[in-house]
Every structure is written in C-alpha cells, then in structure tokens.
Input
Amino acid sequence: MVKKLALYLFHYLLVFISALILSTCAGYYLFVFDWNVTMMEKIINGILITLSVTASLGFYWAGHKLRERY
Output
C-alpha cells in the first residue's frame, strides 16, 4: 500500500516538474528574451528551447510510464 502511494505521488511529481520546465521555458522565451540578436545567438537559443521541451517531454513520459505500472 505504501509503495503504491509512493509511486502515485512520484508520478504527479514528475508531471509537475514537466509542467514547470515547459512553462518556465515558454515564459522566458516569450516575455524575457530579446530576439534582436545575432544569428548565432538565435541558433543557440533555438537549441536551448528544443532541449528544454525535450527534457519536459522526458519527465512527462517517465511519469506516464510510472502511471501504467500501478
């Protein structure tokens, strides 16, 4: 019973972390970052956006797989 509860809470923790990463990344690039920079800085920031979204999806995927377990 305790193991099932721990897995349940860990699932929601992973989904919550995923949402935090995604909203933080989106908020930064929508409201803070200045896109009037050189092309190289735009490429670097595009890569950072891609990595952040991939990390967010990775946390969500791990939470979903954990959810399927119990």
